[in-house]
Amino acid sequence: MSNKAKTIIWPLIFGIGFLLVWEFGFLHQLLDLKHFQLPVPSQIGITLYNNLSKALSDAVVTISGALIGMALGSFLGFMIAVIATCFPKWGYGGMILVTALNAIPIVALSPIMNLWFSTGMIQKIGVVTVVCMAAMAINAYSGLNNLKPYSVDLMHSVAADHWTIFKKLRLPNCLPNVFTAFKINVAGSIIAAIISEYFASSTAGLGFGIKDHLRKAEMAMGWSYIVVASLAGVLIYLIILLVERDAIKWHASQR
């Protein structure tokens, strides 16, 4: 069996085994839970199938806010890294600031955004933007500055100016780090969007749906929303992997 097949088959066997343990109640016995507290996978699947259009409608609301916020946060984080690289004397202060912002818990950030903005979508985008800035800024700064030894000296020896060094050397070098940041931000953006909906005044989205259905003790429906959020995260992650494979095919990680 090839290594590539092993990386697919073993996780698949583990996942199926976990679902069977869950389905036949062994997980309930292990955690001392009742079936109404933790619905089995078949019940969650049937509930999701019967309410698929509503779940997808709420998923569109959450994912759109998460993607817009991730794009804004990633752009701002990248620009902070560029400024810190080009103007290290004063620009590095932005890196310290964005790191400090990243230390604020999402559950504290969401009420703050609720006070700043009036609509649920803007509140959600604001939270996701702040959450995604740090990962991009730190990763991009690392890629822009961790260059091969003597590479900058070699560019200077051929009279390359700062813009040429940035375009020909620093920017290509940071692309793998940028995609790493995107992959980190996928999970962070969806979690931030769901938590924001949990606290915001919105009446749509996966976060609101999870809160509303769990409050009504509709556990299977609440879990079906969690399944949709997980599948959406996996799908976006796979899309980024495909784009990464095509964009930096020259890099050692893609060979």
From TrEMBL:
Localization annotation: Cell membrane
Residues annotated as transmembrane: 12-31, 59-83, 90-109, 121-141, 178-200, 220-243
Keyword set, alphabetical order: Cell membrane, Membrane, Transmembrane, Transmembrane helix, Transport
CDD domains for this protein: TM_PBP2
Pfam families: BPD_transp_1 (PF00528)
Domain of life: Bacteria
PROSITE patterns the record matches: ABC_TM1
Protein name from the UniProt record: NitT/TauT family transport system permease protein
Lineage: Bacteria, Bacillati, Bacillota, Clostridia, Lachnospirales
